[in-house]
Amino acid sequence: MRSPSLPRLFRGTGCRPVSEIRLQRREFALAVGAMALAAGQAHAQTQAKPASGAKLARRVGITLSSFGQHLTKQPLRSEAGKISMLELPKLLREELDMDVIDLNTRGLGEMKPNELEQIRKAAEDAGVVLTNLKLNQPRLDMNSADKQVRQAAMSEYRRSIDAAAQLGLRWARPLPRTMRPDMDLHVAAYRELADYGAERGIQMLVENYGWMQSDLQSVVDLVRRIGHNVAACPDTGNWNSDEIRFAGLKATFPLAVSCDFKAKTFDANQEHPAYDLQRCFRIGWDAGFRGPWCLEHAHRDRATLFRNLAWLRDRLRSWMAS
Question: How far apart are CA 181 and CA 174, in angstroms?
Answer without folding.
Answer: 13
